[in-house]
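Supplementary Note 3. Input sequence used for the single-chain structure prediction.
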Amino acid sequence: MRRMANDLSHVDEAGAVRMVDVGAKPLSRRRAVARAEVRMARETARRLHDLPKGDALTTAQLAGIMAAKRTSELIPLCHPLALSHVAVTLEVRDDSVEIVATAETTAQTGVEMEALTAASVAALTVYDMAKAIDKQMVIAEVRLLEKTKEQV
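The predicted structure, written as discrete structure tokens, is reproduced below.
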């Protein structure tokens, strides 16, 4: 347990969880990009702009942006960040929607959790809005595509 604790930034030497102290770290320009996919029937993909609940794509885009801004409220050990930019794009394919979320900030810690949260919540929103017409949808491949850090 002690070896694992030394390898994990959110675990102290005794194995207890903790919020990482980033106070002494310099500010850096941070950017992260995450992706999620919602797989569905072809008919569902064609109807995403006109579902009984409304336009799933616009709603999911807004939900993803809102989620990125609230990540620290959802994930206990995340630092609250002043995000300088969040973008969520949804691309409809024949039988799926690809969601790409980008988060940016200038801070002492990264924004990968914000990008992953944005992509995840956007995918959940598509699922929620289309579940009445497609019981076989699957949220898949939520993953971090890239993260960068530049000194300011």
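Helices lie at 2-7, 42-46, 56-69, 71-74, 112-130. The first strand starts at residue 28 and ends at 39.
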